[in-house]
Amino acid sequence: xxxxxxxxxxxxxxxxxxxxxxxxxxxxxxxxxxxxxxxxxxxxxxxxxxxxxxxxxxxxxxxxxxxxxxxxxxxxxxxxxxxxxxxxxxxxxxxxxxxxxxxxxxxxxxxxxxxxxxxxxxxxxxxxxxxxxxxxxxxxxxxxxxxxxxxxxxxxxxxxxxxxxxxxxxxxxxxxxxxxxxxxxxxxxxxxxxxxxxxxxxxxxxxxxxxxxxxxxxxxxxxxxxxxxxxxxxxxxxxxxxxxxxxxxxxxxxxxxxxxxxxxxxxxxxxxxxxxxxxxxxxxxxxxxxxxxxxxxxxxxxxxxxxxxxxxxxxxxxxxxxxxxxxxxxxxxxxxxxxxxxxxxxxxxxxxxxxxxxxxxxxxxxxxxxxxxxxxxxxxxxxxxxxxxxxxxxxxxxxxxxxxxxxxxxxxxxxxxxxxxxxxxxxxxxxxxxxxxxxxxxxxxxxxxxxxxxxxxxxxxxxxxxxxxxxxxxxxxxxxxxxxxxxxxxxxxxxxxxxxxxxxxxxxxxxxxxxxxxxxxxxxxxxxxxxxxxxxxxxxxxxxxxxxxxxxxxxxxxxxxxxxxxxxxxxxxxxxx
Length: 577
Known about the structure:
Elements: E1 2-3, H1 12-19, H2 21-32, H3 37-54, H4 60-94, H5 97-108, H6 112-130, H7 135-147, H8 151-161, H9 169-182, H10 186-193, H11 197-242, H12 248-266, H13 289-309, H14 312-318, E2 323-326, E3 334-335, E4 342-343, E5 346-349, H15 355-369, H16 374-387, H17 389-408, H18 410-419, H19 425-440, H20 443-460, H21 465-476, H22 484-494, H23 500-526, H24 553-574
Parallel strand pairs: 1-3
Antiparallel strand pairs: 2-5, 3-4
Helix pairs in contact: 1-18, 2-3, 2-23, 3-4, 3-17, 4-7, 4-15, 4-16, 4-17, 4-22, 5-13, 6-7, 6-8, 6-9, 6-11, 6-12, 7-8, 7-22, 8-11, 8-22, 8-23, 9-20, 10-11, 10-21, 11-12, 13-15, 13-24, 14-24, 17-22, 18-19, 18-20, 19-20, 19-21, 19-23, 20-21, 21-23
């Protein structure tokens, strides 16, 4: 057993600078040296292990075991999601269905900016809300490439668009975890995040349009951007403040999609935007409804199944098949210095309830619907695996880095340094979340790592812990677009393997600007706009722990049966067309 130390060099700021060396190296490797993603990831992980052993005095065997645990988590469930998502998209391409999807989208709008709003922002937000963990970027980026977007642009736009829904992703998991680790009522956190993120949600569509076509482009399509972001923001605010953290993404994205499609029925931009050197759009003949329904059926099946898998009773039922085991050496091998208790490290192989599994199931149903021969599907799956070797190494490496950072105490050291900024802490509070998501690739993990630190630090200076914990989640969403894990997923989905550094340089400026906006917003809400913080007792007082009801097995079976009936009916209708 080894006890963590958060200040190995006797000065928290010096220790934090040393702990940040692997992160600085990763920035340099991607932004300056332009290393390939898997090379940068492996080098960064090796450097982090060296710092853990030499500076933090972590036993070498323990450091290597923690890194291996993270690498396995990178392969499952994260890598599993990437494999299944790319395979599903390739099924639609191989069977010719994506050509019909392209024509159906073109019949709504031929403007590339508006297509990005529909697919990257609205549809991506739905996937984030239902599944999370890389699914929205993998699916929506691949769809944009299929529509004719340049791969780097498609990946970058989807990463930026994925900012708005992340805090409420995977049926509100980040907020639920934040409530569990801090003891603050999840409804209070949901309300506070719902008074921060809608401002970004309303801004992101304009940000996407400006990134694509500059100020003139914003002038051309500002009504559509307003409808897209405005409806999403209003629905996100209302649901997060009155329904809780589970449904904001689902409801907001559906409102955004429906309102934007209806708006585009009566409004068209004066100038159709196409990419430079791209041929003018050809007139698209109207497709029969049955053909369009069949072409979209893989993604309709995905929506039904992924949404169903995210429901608590279904997840609880499927989790009965989970195989768990204490990870060697790491389990109870690290002692938390504040509590004196050994930290458990259990690896859960939730093969049935994993998001990747339900995406693969949607892909297999799509194989049947599109009448693809099983032998062709099997060969396509093998080709998909072969093409994703480098991205899987990247994901495994960066998750290994995340785990060694947490186990050694390096991540906490950097958090403590930021938390010691006194009255300026609300300004830097979102940076903690940004840092956590950059390292781990997950807003959920960032809340688990820094949530308690945020609440305690805020209480110490008289700031509402609810605001600080919410800022951790809201700031974290701006780090998602530069997380090496997210970049690896986006590159895998768009055929940009080996160009991770280009994508990182594309997104990093957007990430820094957006986290600065969240920082200023949090600082104002801690001071001049303190009336925006939901009441939950005086500043520094925590509400009681959130309560969670045990989902009913019968409800889980009922939900699964309903989803099966819907999918079977859809397959029966469209398979013959």
